[in-house]
Amino acid sequence: MRILLVLCLLLPCWLSARELVIGGLLEPPLKWLDEKGQPRGLDVDLVTTIFGVLQVPIKIELLDSGARLTRNAEGGVYDLLLSHSYKPERTRYLLYPKQAHIRHSWHFFVRKADMSKIHYQTLADLKPWRIGVTKDFSYTPELAAAMVDPAYRFQAIPINQLQLRKLIAGRIDLVPMSLVTAFTQIREEGLEGRLGYLPKPLKTSPYFNVWTRSRADADTPALMAAYDAELLHMKHDGRLKALYDKYGIPYLEP
Is 240 exposed, middle or buried (0-12, 13-18, 19+ CB in 10 A)? Predict the structure, then answer.
C-alpha cells in the first residue's frame, strides 16, 4: 500500500483532471450495456474501482466490432482498451501493464448432437469441419496459420456474439470461445442443453487492460505503475475475487 501511495504522489496534478477514454467489446458478464445504455460488468467495475482510487476520471465506450475497436485504438480515440490478451504484433499500438486481471480458457464449442463426431487433438483433426472465427481476435499462432491454409474451412465475422447463434443454426460446426463468454451467452439466450465444448483447450491466457500508444505521453508509465500496484493490492485483499463472485465467474488468480 505504501508503494501505491508513493506512486499516486508522483502522478502529475493535471492528470487527476484528465479523463481517460476506455474502449471495449460487448462481452457479458465482463462488459455490456444495461437498459439505460450504461456500461456494466466485471471489467467496468474493475477499472472504475482502480481509477477511482487513483482519482482519475474515466469514460467507457463499448462496441460490438473488434475491427472497429482496433481502428479506434490506432487512431487515437481511446487511452485504454479492456481485456486484451498478449500478442506480439499488438505491441505496435498497445502498451501492456504487468498485472493481468483475468485468465481465460478457450475451447471449441459444438452442437451437442455432434459431440461424438468431432474429435480434437490437433488442428488437423478439424479440417473437415466449418470453423467460425471472429475478426481481430487473438487465438493462437497455430490457428492463425491455419486460417490462411485452404485445407481448412474457416468463416470469419466481426461480431463474436453471433458465433453461437450461427452454430445453433447449423451454419458452422464449431467455434473457439472462452468458457466465461460462451456460458454467459448460453445462459442468457436459453441455449442450455444444445451446445457443448471439446475437452482439450485451444489455449489458456491471461488478459490485461491495456494502454494505447496513440494516446500515451510522458506520464503514462507512472499511471500504469499505479494501476499495477492497485490491481495487485486487490488480488491480495480479496476485492478482485469479490468482483468475480458478484458476476458468478469462477476465480483463478491471473
Answer: buried
Residues 139, 201 contacting (CB under 8 angstroms): no
Q: Give me the residues paired with residue 232 across strands.
A: none
Separation of alpha carbons 12 and 18, rounded Å? 10
Please name the residue that has the C-alpha cell 494501476: 227
What is the DSSP code (8-state) at residue 5? H
Q: Could you tell me which residues come within 8 angstroms of residue 146 by beta carbon, excluding any fewer than 6 positions away? A: 123, 152, 154
Q: Which of 118, 124, 131 is nearest to 196 (CA)?
A: 118
Work out the burial of residue 193: count CB atoms within 10 Å of its CB; fewer than 13 is exposed, 13-18 middle, 19 or more buried: exposed
Whole-number Å distance between alpha carbons of 249 and 180: 7
CA distances from 242 to 128, 150, 157, 164, 232 (A): 43, 46, 34, 29, 14
Q: What is the CA radius of gyration of the chain?
A: 19
Closest CA to 161 of 22, 57, 65: 65
As a whole number of angstroms, the distance between CA 11 and CA 18 comes to 12
138-176 pLDDT tens trace: 889 999 999 999 999 999 999 998 999 999 999 999 999
**Number of other CB atoms surrounding residue 31 within 10 Å:** 23
Pairing relationship of beta strands 20-25 and 80-85 according to DSSP bridges? parallel
Per-residue pLDDT tens digits for 33-87:
999 999 999 999 999 999 999 999 999 999 998 889 999 999 999 999 999 999 8
